[in-house]
Amino acid sequence: MAPRLDFSDWWGKDRKKGTPVVVKMENPNYSVVEINGPDSAFRPVEKSRGKNAKQVTWVLLLKAHRAVGCVAWLATVFWALLGTIKKRLIFRQGVAVATEKLGKGKLVLKIIRVFLVTSLAILAFEVLAYSKGWRYFESANLHIPSTLDLQGLLHMVYVAWLTFRADYIAPVIQVLSQFCVVLFLIQSVDRLVLCLGCFWIKYKKIKPRIDGDPFKSDDVEAPGYEYPMVLVQIPMCNEREVYEQSISAVCQMDWPKDRILIQVLDDSNDESIQWLIKAEVTKWNQKGVNIIYRHRLIRTGYKAGNLKSAMSCDYVKDYEFVAIFDADFQPNPDFLKLTVPHFKNNPELGLVQARWAFVNKDENLLTRLQNINLCFHFEVEQQVNGAFLNFFGFNGTAGVWRIKALEESGGWLERTTVEDMDIAVRAHLNGWKFIFLNDVKVLCEVPESYEAYRKQQHRWHSGPMQLFRLCLPAIITSKVPLIPFVLPVI
């Protein structure tokens, strides 16, 4: 039964008092309604009218919380950046530098800190000036107020800062911007030329070819097949996860066993890993594979020092070519038969480089992006430079060198962290030519985590500038044209 409401009594009693009345409905379909005054029953209810102030307060608090979180995140990023810079200045490839270098590193770190703190202070000053209404950049030209327009000491400091920026900082920034634009245009032209060269290679189907049977003997009196002596080197250091598959792939290459020697160059400092690698080498040696295990007690020079030590063995003089594979590379059984024949009847050829293929390219977004970047590097950059210039940077692995070319170029040097690029430049300065085989692929992996990717990129990019400084005098005085050096470096 619906409640009985006497509206006349209710209107007469509560008209003057204006006290709220709660009307309870027995029907559960109705809500509880609160009437705040005598006129409230006849005007529409304004939703959330009394909550506006509270909502604004909560919104402001939320924005303030986000702003504080953003500032804290920026501070964390800055301190992490400073810590990384400090570590890179103090440590070079995990080894502490000398005391003199430590002093220089601390000085550079202090300069970077001062620069960051100064930048933050200037940014805060600009925000303060903007909040006070000192906006002199709204017009096309900078408007500097006169002395009579100054509103105080802070305003005077801000005007002095604007004058200093306009007179001293702006010209320098403008010159740097123009320089960056020129570099961008040069790199754009370089990329355009490389893409056109790649298109021409595809259109004309240009690629290195092997004429006839490369292993057939030229001796009429003793016909048969002759295979050159090949040395295969696998440098590694603490490669617990990949050593087995790498050694297994190299040991299964299709090449006469008496014409090949495999060197496992282990620089591991973990004895358990050393024993595992020794056991793997012993297993394949018992199967008839000509393989040996080498471990250096004094591990200097990193990979370059490891390769240099291996090339100093007396038996190396019996071999004509050397193939190099990093610990995570798995060549196909026909790798040597696809690369070594290019050296025949080509005495000026010093290097045959194969392409990389990635087994984990679809693992995540990082691996897919790396695959795109490296595919452009191989498909466009190295293939075009190899086809038209006979020169490109050695990739450090999946390549076959003529040992004579290495020896005449000075061998492996420990002066930089990019020993592969170093030996490639010196070999080309000595007149040796390179060939890139885009059809020959060697399986490997790309880093799946950002930390591993960061370390890899640091190794790849920390040495080129140092190498450029060391090789520039030799490049200038060399009779070899500069174009083969300029284009690959760009």
From TrEMBL:
<protein>
    <submittedName>
        <fullName>Xyloglucan glycosyltransferase 5</fullName>
    </submittedName>
</protein>
<dbReference type="GO" id="GO:0071555">
    <property type="term" value="P:cell wall organization"/>
</dbReference>
<dbReference type="GO" id="GO:0048868">
    <property type="term" value="P:pollen tube development"/>
</dbReference>
<feature type="transmembrane region" description="Helical">
    <location>
        <begin position="64"/>
        <end position="82"/>
    </location>
</feature>
<keyword id="KW-1133">Transmembrane helix</keyword>
<keyword id="KW-0961">Cell wall biogenesis/degradation</keyword>
<dbReference type="GO" id="GO:0000139">
    <property type="term" value="C:Golgi membrane"/>
</dbReference>
<feature type="transmembrane region" description="Helical">
    <location>
        <begin position="111"/>
        <end position="130"/>
    </location>
</feature>
<dbReference type="InterPro" id="IPR029044">
    <property type="entry name" value="Nucleotide-diphossugar_trans"/>
</dbReference>
<dbReference type="GO" id="GO:0099402">
    <property type="term" value="P:plant organ development"/>
</dbReference>
<keyword id="KW-0333">Golgi apparatus</keyword>
<keyword id="KW-0328">Glycosyltransferase</keyword>
<dbReference type="GO" id="GO:0016757">
    <property type="term" value="F:glycosyltransferase activity"/>
</dbReference>
<keyword id="KW-0472">Membrane</keyword>
<feature type="domain" description="Glycosyltransferase 2-like">
    <location>
        <begin position="322"/>
        <end position="464"/>
    </location>
</feature>
<dbReference type="Pfam" id="PF13632">
    <property type="entry name" value="Glyco_trans_2_3"/>
</dbReference>
<comment type="similarity">
    <text>Belongs to the glycosyltransferase 2 family. Plant cellulose synthase-like C subfamily.</text>
</comment>
<keyword id="KW-0812">Transmembrane</keyword>
<dbReference type="InterPro" id="IPR001173">
    <property type="entry name" value="Glyco_trans_2-like"/>
</dbReference>
<keyword id="KW-0808">Transferase</keyword>
